[in-house]
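Teaching assistant's notes for section 4

Start the section by putting this record on the projector. Ask students to predict, before seeing the second block, whether PHP domain-containing protein will look compact or extended. Collect guesses on the board.
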Amino acid sequence: MKELVDLHLHSTFSDGVRTPTELVAMAKGLGLKAIALADHDTVDGIDEAVAAGAAAGVEVLPALEFSVAYSSFKDVHLLGYLLDHRDAQLQLILKEFRDRREARGEAIVGRINEKLATEGRAPISSAEAAALAGGALGRPHIAQVLMGKGYARDMQDAFVRYLLPCDVPKRYFPMEEALAAVQRLGGVAVLAHPTTITNDRDTLNRIIDELCTMGLAGVEAFNNVCNEQESAFLVATAEKKGLIWTGGSDYHGIEEGISMGTGKGSMAIPYSCVEALNRAQKQRA
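Reveal the predicted structure now:
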């Protein structure tokens, strides 16, 4: 039986609803050999995940998902694997982002309360949402409060009715800065769900070529926004350019029909992806 992994998971330390320990327990129950905790712009959950993994016999790769801007493209996501997550400079940079994220969460709650007031409903408290977050206050935590108050039926309803209309823009890392940070920290940079940047293959090819000159090492070929043909294209693109390819469910615990390990049901990421990441790290070192 093939050994499988999931290299893109989120915990309560960013915008997931499971703790790192809970994610490891789920992975153990699913028979996954390895996982990567890749929270958004924070590494605060990694030590807990690694410790839980060691106890459960699940390999945990330290990872980080940077929210990046590149050229005219906003909210591009860059995964940094196997980086030194305890680096003091990284901690300072991420603290600034965490502070900004907290301020964004507070601003979103403020806007939601304005909308609730027009509906004749009592306001919600950012403290309630923050209590659900292991780290930075995220929109899923606010959604959970809205559901608990009976203001939304489910997570999707909370986003459609409140979180999307009341959103506040977030800050992004410059791509050059994010790629340089991953390299400095001895990590391996992988472009997350590339087709969310653009569906035009010529444009995507050009972007990947440009990022390769800046230190990109791989692409996430299997994810929840790619169909089979797009995944095949990304695998072929990676192999042609001498890049590695990876895959993961991007599991937050809030998406309808998305499961750890299998994504929308058919994902099967082999352990060879972990071996490829380890080889890439050694080569870059």
